[in-house]
Amino acid sequence: MDVLYENGEAAVGEVQDALPDAPSYSAVRALLRKLLDKGHVAYRDDRGRYVYRPVLARAKARRSALNRVVETFYGGSAAAAVVGLLGSKRELSDDELASIEAVLAKFKATDAP
């Protein structure tokens, strides 16, 4: 999907070329077919060559992917996912921490009686 978002549209070979350690042409084609079946992408026929484009907005795709990660690896717990991310070895900058604190403060204010 990243390749499609970046380029606006791409054929199977173009997607494959843009991927590091790319799978086979057939595997990329099969993945694009699954995305098509799920309604995430659409295609146009360019003289026998299918050119795919994203249909799902990037923000919605992010939310969907993140929800799947939270469900799959954190038992559906957003709190556990946040703790998992914050517990990683990556150091957070002061700006990143301030941003996280600001979002948490908004959540607390929204939930207040």
Number of strands: 3
Report how far apart the termini are. 41 Å
User: Mean pLDDT, as a whole number?
Assistant: 91
Radius of gyration: 19 Å
What shape does the CA trace take? elongated
Helicity, in percent?
55-70%
Strand percent estimate: 5-15%
**Biggest sheet strand line-up:** 1-3-2
| Count of alpha/pi helices | 6
pLDDT < 50 stretches: none
Element-level helix/strand string: HEHHEEHHH
Largest sheet at a glance? 3 strands, antiparallel
Helix/strand-derived category reads: alpha+beta
Structure report:
This protein has helices at 2-7, 12-18, 25-37, 58-74, 78-86, 94-111; strands at 10-11, 41-46, 49-54. It has 113 residues and is α+β, with helices and mostly antiparallel strands. It has a three-stranded antiparallel β-sheet. A hairpin with a 2-residue loop joins strand 2 (41-46) and strand 3 (49-54). Helix 2 (12-18) crosses helix 3. The model has no long low-confidence stretch (mean pLDDT 91).
Question: Topology, please?
Answer:
Blueprint lengths: L1 H6 L2 E2 H7 L6 H13 L3 E6 L2 E6 L3 H17 L3 H9 L7 H18 L2
Antiparallel strand pairs: 1-3, 2-3
Helix pairs in contact: 2-3
Q: What's the gist of this structure?
A:
With 113 residues, the chain is an alpha+beta fold. The chain is 62% helix and 12% strand.
